[in-house]
Amino acid sequence: MPTDDRPPNPTPGDRALVRRAQETRERVIARLSDHFAHDALDVDEFERRVTVAQTAENPADIEALLADLPALAGAGASVPAVVPTVVPALVPAERDRDTLYAIFGGIDRRGTWTLPRQMKIVAVFGGAHLDLREARFPPGVVELDVTAVMGGIEIVVPPGLAVQMHGSAIMGGFQDINRAPANPDPDAPLLRVRGLTMMGGVHVSMRLPGESERSAARRERRELREEKRAQRLLDRQR
């Protein structure tokens, strides 16, 4: 039976600091996303800063991630909300848990949908694609138990979602991600992914709301070309 290992609620004295850190985190990640959308940050630096923002506990340390970034032309934010929507209460009890199977087939969940507190995904000779950028989350930890055998599971998350991911891989790949504060706000969503892959893969990618897979791939190719161009210039200077 799954255990409830949600982090304990902070003491009243700590709650104000935790909440202030979360508010700063959301605002800073939104600003970082805006700079990323304007190509002021490449994907590696963007993910590095978002990871620091998600794991830092001190609001001043989170705020410092913006210190060296230039002001963007135009005052209005050009990126939609990067913070997941939190439902005030869980969906009915029978939907607190859900299981999805992709066996010799595929699963594709995207758009606006509500995650249960606990979810299991099994992909055997098939694939599962979960896009969580517009999904609604219950407050606190959402447990995602995944198994991929000769198959793959792809999870797309917005920058504002805290993620912890750890699992085992046998002749396959399972990302190890820690993008969450040690003392998270109990009202903020936290996605915890655990499981096993055998001759398959489980992958989490961070994309801006509204960014298509094609746009993300095109951006990555452009950045790779720029890296190669910079390397050639460096080689000529040697």
Distinctive features:
29% helix; six-stranded mixed beta sheet; five-stranded parallel beta sheet; alpha/beta; 13 strands; 3 domains; 4 helices; 238 residues
Describe the structure.
This protein is α/β, with parallel strands linked by helices and 238 residues long. It has three domains: 65 residues, no CATH class; 122 residues, no CATH class; 27 residues. It contains four helices and 13 strands. The strands form three sheets. The chain has a six-stranded mixed sheet with strand order 2-4-7-12-9-11. Helix 1 runs antiparallel to helix 2. The longest helix has 26 residues. The radius of gyration is 19 Å and the shape is globular. The N and C termini lie far apart (61 Å). The model has no long low-confidence stretch (mean pLDDT 82).
What class would the helix/strand composition place it in? alpha/beta
The mean pLDDT is 82
- Spell the H/E element sequence: HHHEEEEEEEEEEEEEH
Main sheet: strands, sense, barrel: 6 strands, mixed
Unreliable runs: none
Q: What oligomeric state best describes the polypeptide chains here? A: single chain
Output the strand order for the largest sheet.
Answer: 2-4-7-12-9-11
Query: What's the domain count?
Result: 3
Overall geometry comes to globular
Number of distinct beta strands: 13
Strand content bin: 25-35%
Helix content: 25-40%
Radius of gyration: 19 Å
SS element count, helices: 4
Q: Distance between termini?
A: 61 Å
A few lines on this structure:
By secondary structure, the protein is of the alpha/beta class. Helix content is 29%, strand content 30%.
